[in-house]
Write a structure and sequence with these properties.
Blueprint lengths: L1 E3 L2 H9 L4 E8 L7 E8 L14 E4 L3 H6 L5 E6 L14 E2 L1
Length: 97
């Protein structure tokens, strides 16, 4: 599941033990914003030389993602929630498939 990244989701991820977010930044040519950042929460610190091919970098979940959750001009920020149980928040998030 792909959802708009919010402070509520960030707090939930932190409470579930997630410490880092892998990140993929891309240009968008449709929509109102020109940049898209996809975040993939993880619990273990990744090895920079062995990042998954669909990611550019990673962040500590309490640094850059906190700023991203507050909104960034001209940027859409999404989080992949495939492995996370968000049933408590299901009715309060916007989901895109």
């Amino acid at each position: 599941m792909r959802a708009i990244f919010t402070k509520t989701i960030l707090e939930f991820l932190i409470s579930k033990g997630y410490r880092y977010c892998l990140s993929k930044t891309s240009n968008q040519f449709n929509g109102k914003n020109s940049v898209c950042i996809d975040l993939y929460p993880i619990k273990e610190k990744p090895v920079i030389k062995n990042l998954p091919p669909n990611t550019d970098t990673y962040f500590s979940i309490i640094r850059e993602p906190l700023i991203l959750a507050q909104g960034v001009d001209d940027t859409d920020v999404f989080v992949s929630l495939d492995d996370v149980d968000l049933s408590d928040f299901h009715s309060s998030i916007s989901v895109f498939n």
